[in-house]
Amino acid sequence: WRGSIYKLVWLDLTAFLTLYYVLNSVYRFALNPDQKTTFASIVAYCNSYRDLIPLSFVLGFYVSIVMTRWWNQYTSIPWPDSIAVFISSNVHGQDERGRVMRRTIMRYVCLCLTMVLSNVSPRVKKRFPGLSNLVEAGLLNENERTIIEAMNKSFPRPSKHWLPIVWASSIITRARKEVSINYDYKTINSRAL
């Protein structure tokens, strides 16, 4: 039931069937023969204009617009996979420090994505209702939680989903100063071209 088409259309179907049976009952039991003839001529008049509207074309156009909009929304979801590949190929270091940098950057990216999705998705909000749930999941440390809570006390209105990206950017800046990143982004792009 939770994912079925019946759950989506039951209210519309109920309204349509109710209206249909009300009109059917009025036609059969409340109208006299002259009123039935007038009703039948109104139905024939409306039916004559049905062919003037290309319903299949309009329906196809509508479905095309809906599917294009859905696909654009789906492709605009920021999946962390491409960032993970970029980080693993550009933040060098086989030692423990390089590995921790890469993992921390990706943890911050996943934390940011989870915080954004909890603002827009009820299912994600149910899974992560508060910062303590993010700590339990391993996306947030206790000291980072303290920082976000302090920011929320000082500035309660806007969401703080951008804060992990700021932290990730500072790690990338530190890695560039320590020569863990050999090339700038512009250098990498010019070599690819």
Automatic annotation (TrEMBL):
Where, subcellularly, is it found?
A: Cell membrane; Membrane
Q: Name one Pfam family in it.
A: Bestrophin
Which InterPro entries does this entry report, sorted A to Z? Bestrophin, Bestrophin-like
Keywords assigned: Cell membrane, Chloride, Chloride channel, Ion channel, Ion transport, Membrane, Transmembrane, Transmembrane helix, Transport
Q: What is this protein called?
A: Bestrophin homolog
Question: Which PANTHER family does UniProt cross-reference here?
Answer: BESTROPHIN, BESTROPHIN 1, ISOFORM C-RELATED
Q: Family, per the entry?
A: Belongs to the anion channel-forming bestrophin (TC 1.A.46) family. Calcium-sensitive chloride channel subfamily.
Gene Ontology MF term list: chloride channel activity
| A GO CC term assigned to this protein in UniProt | chloride channel complex
Coiled coil ranges (UniProt) are: none
The protein's organism comes out as Drosophila busckii
Membrane topology per the entry is: Multi-pass membrane protein
Summarizing the function annotation, the protein's role is: Forms chloride channels.
Where does the sequence pass through the membrane?
13-31, 52-71, 105-122
Lineage, highest ranks first: Eukaryota, Metazoa, Ecdysozoa, Arthropoda, Hexapoda
